[in-house]
Design a protein that fits this description.
By secondary structure, this protein is an alpha/beta fold. 27% of the residues lie in helices and 21% in strands. Helix 5 (165-175) links the parallel strand 11 and strand 12.
């Protein structure tokens, strides 16, 4: 087996018989409405070679835009078999089918399946969050894949799945020795960049803590799984467009920092493999072929920030939303209906967190508000209706506040933008300052 790194979580896996599995192809810049871009940038020659190819299979781990990218998938034959996990809901399979793909293979979670002679195992979401917090909704989003080739070589690709040490140890025991493990060292996140309650210094402290913590966990996972090569991946992006100034708050460690933190733990440098776009690892020999000499191989935080600045003028498609000035939007009514949809889903899941969601909506030229000031609406998640207008959050009650434009709010309400995408266009504050994965999942149902 040979694996070629392209970007982020996308690898071109070439099996011993010449067949290929392309994982999570995302090659279009400016996803999330002009906010997220590939970094390091994909060399044009590499992009052209992959997009003009005909993979034998495509594996899509989950529905987030840096893994499931319709503009990229549009380049491939719609007869290509697409491998996904058998989720309890059809969101991913429906999204792939809507693009015209006709051969969607939904594999049962945790079972070693034989797909046309290839041994594959797709894993369900391991835990509720990267920090192993419980998600009361218990709805899986992420998956991982294990591949065993006919020549005996094997690959585990974790993607974004929030894996814990117990899972890595179990996979190592079940399938080991594994030749290569592609493991997370960072992730796309609004934290702390989009949080308004922190000062610059406060954000930088959180960036350092999150970066070193994620790399430390990458090391621990590598040791627990015991793969011959551990490859850090799924962090190849940079903020651009309106968010370009926030690139300073990204939490992905750069290559030199990963090497430094790996060495600090006393681990063998031979077991760490950092790949640049176009690098291809031969799992049988352990050799690496650098197929794209022009690929950006060594870069610093300053290099990444400088590249983000070159993207600052990229447009945001949400800014194009326009509503006739004669049209009056009943925002409270629309938000109330979206809250009712969310409440119906909460009833099905049996979850009513004692927290208030506060929406602060600011008018724009394209979607103006009546009056001068912003509109503030409060949604207690433990009751079905909105709080009375002007009533503040009760003292001592948990709250989460999202400040957004009317363009962003309308896109969310109409289902043009998923909440998890729209968050990158908001300013977020919370009290207490802690993450609840269940609330994030529930907000995904806030729409008409």
């Amino acid at each position: 087996m040979k694996i070629e790194f392209i970007t982020n979580a996308s690898f071109n896996v070439e099996l011993a018989d010449g067949r290929t599995i392309l994982t999570d192809p995302w090659y279009s810049d400016g996803i999330y409405h002009g906010i997220i871009f590939n970094y390091p940038p994909i060399p044009e020659s590499l992009k052209a070679r992959i997009l003009s190819g005909r993979p034998d299979y495509i594996y899509v781990s989950h529905i987030h835009g840096d893994h499931f990218d319709p503009p990229t998938l549009a380049h491939f034959s719609k007869e290509t078999p697409v491998l996904i996990g058998k989720f309890p809901t059809p969101a991913l399979s429906n999204a792939i089918r809507s693009l015209g793909f006709t051969d969607i293979r939904e594999l049962p979670f945790g079972e070693l399946s034989n797909v046309d002679g290839i041994e594959l195992c797709i894993f369900d979401q391991f835990s509720g969050s990267n920090d192993d917090l419980e998600n009361e909704t218990n709805l899986p989003i992420d998956t991982s894949i294990f591949i065993r080739d006919s020549d005996g070589t094997s690959l585990f690709h974790n993607v974004d799945n929030p894996i814990q040490l117990r899972h890595a140890e179990e996979i190592g025991r079940r399938f080991g020795p594994i030749d290569a493990a592609i493991l997370p060292y960072a992730s796309v996140s609004v934290f702390p960049a989009m949080f308004g309650q922190y000062t610059h210094d406060g954000k930088m402290r959180r960036v350092e803590a999150l970066m070193t913590g994620r790399v430390a966990k990458f090391r621990e996972l590598a040791v627990a799984m015991g793969a011959r090569k551990s490859i850090p991946a799924a962090g190849s992006f940079v903020f651009g467009g309106k968010a370009a100034p926030l690139a300073v708050y990204q939490c992905q460690a750069v290559p030199a920092r990963i090497e430094e933190l790996w060495a600090e733990a006393g681990l063998s440098p031979d077991r760490l493999l950092q790949l640049a776009p176009g690098d291809r690892l031969d799992l049988s020999s352990g050799g690496v072929e650098q197929r794209e000499p022009g690929a950006l191989r060594h870069f610093s935080v300053d290099d990444r920030i400088a590249y983000a600045r070159t993207l600052a003028d990229r447009p945001c498609d949400l800014d194009l939303i326009r509503v006739p000035k004669t049209m009056r939007i009943s925002w409270r009514s629309l938000v109330g209906k979206a809250r009712a949809s969310m409440w119906a889903r909460q009833q099905q899941l049996g979850i009513s967190p004692a927290i208030d969601i506060v929406l602060v909506i600011e008018g724009t030229e394209g979607v103006p508000l009546p009056g001068k000031g912003p509109l503030e609406l409060r949604m207690p998640l433990d009751r079905p209706d909105l709080a009375p207008a002007g009533e503040p959050v009760p003292a001592g009650r948990d709250w989460l506040r999202f400040r957004m434009s009317t363009n962003v709010a309308l896109a969310v309400l109409l289902g043009i933008s998923a909440w998890g995408v729209a968050e990158y266009h908001m300013i977020i504050d919370r009290d207490p300052d802690r993450f609840d994965p269940a609330v994030g999942t529930l907000l995904g149902y806030f729409k008409l």
